[in-house]
Amino acid sequence: MPYRLREKLHWCQCAGRVVFLDLMEDRYSCLSPDASAAFLRLSEGQAGGDESGPLRSLVRRGMLVEDRTAKSWKRGAGIPSASDDFAQEPYPAPSVAGLLQAITEQCRWGLLLRTRPFSRIVERLGSRTGERRLADPGENQRIRNIISAFAAVSAFLPSEDRCLVRSLAFYSLCCRNGVRPVLVFGVRMNPFRAHCWVQLGGKVLIGDFEQVRLFIPIAAFG
């Protein structure tokens, strides 16, 4: 029986396992090696009639939906691989206005994440399609100014375990300044960890390239 993925469900293959990001449930999950192999065959339209066996739990949870018209499924985030950080230190001196914006945006997004469903927050960003490129030098300077402000306020707004808040706030300020980067979610295994960063083309704007390169992108928005 052909299947399709439920909406708001993203996936990638990481260390031989299939990992899901479920926006509706605001959670990650991972398949066993046998179920991952069955899922990959099913995703490529190569499954036999008994593939639903190892994947019965996904069908029961509504993550896989019967659909006779279903074909292959898109995997991963479909974005350029990260190649480097956008800007290296020393950063330009941040303005007072830039510092206040960096603080305000992080506080605002922290509140939104506590009071609104995660799926509603992310779906407003839209799915990632196509490739965005670095634009004019003026845009580059605006990006460097935002990076500088976020680096400065990290001294009293610790960045550890705050990658989602920082990335949403950074993405929001970029859009407000005429820059349209991409908000990326990535995963790694052994042990499982998730990370969030902002990327423009192959350049990481916030999220630290040395960290980003350890993660497989699972979804991208913007």
Report the mean per-residue pLDDT as an integer.
85
- Distance between termini? 34 Å
State the helicity in percent bands: 25-40%
Number of distinct beta strands: 10
What is the overall number of helices? 7
Number of domains: 2
What would you call the shape?
A: elongated
* Radius of gyration, taken over Cα atoms and rounded to an integer in Å: 19 Å
H/E series, N to C? Answer: EEEEHHEEHHHHEEEHE
| Largest sheet features | 5 strands, mixed
Q: How do the strands line up in the largest sheet?
A: 6-9-8-7-10
Strand content: 15-25%
What does this structure look like?
With 222 residues, the protein is an alpha+beta fold. It folds into two domains: 64 residues, no CATH class; 138 residues, no CATH class. It contains seven helices and ten strands. A five-stranded mixed sheet has the order 6-9-8-7-10. A three-stranded antiparallel sheet has the order 2-3-4, covered by helices on one side. Helix 5 runs antiparallel to helix 6. It is elongated.
List the helices and strands and how they pair.
Elements: E1 3-5, E2 9-14, E3 17-22, E4 27-30, H1 33-43, H2 56-60, E5 64-66, E6 84-85, H3 96-115, H4 118-123, H5 137-153, H6 163-176, E7 182-188, E8 193-200, E9 203-206, H7 209-212, E10 216-221
Parallel strand pairs: 6-9
Antiparallel strand pairs: 1-5, 2-3, 3-4, 7-8, 7-10, 8-9
Helix pairs in contact: 3-5, 3-6, 5-6
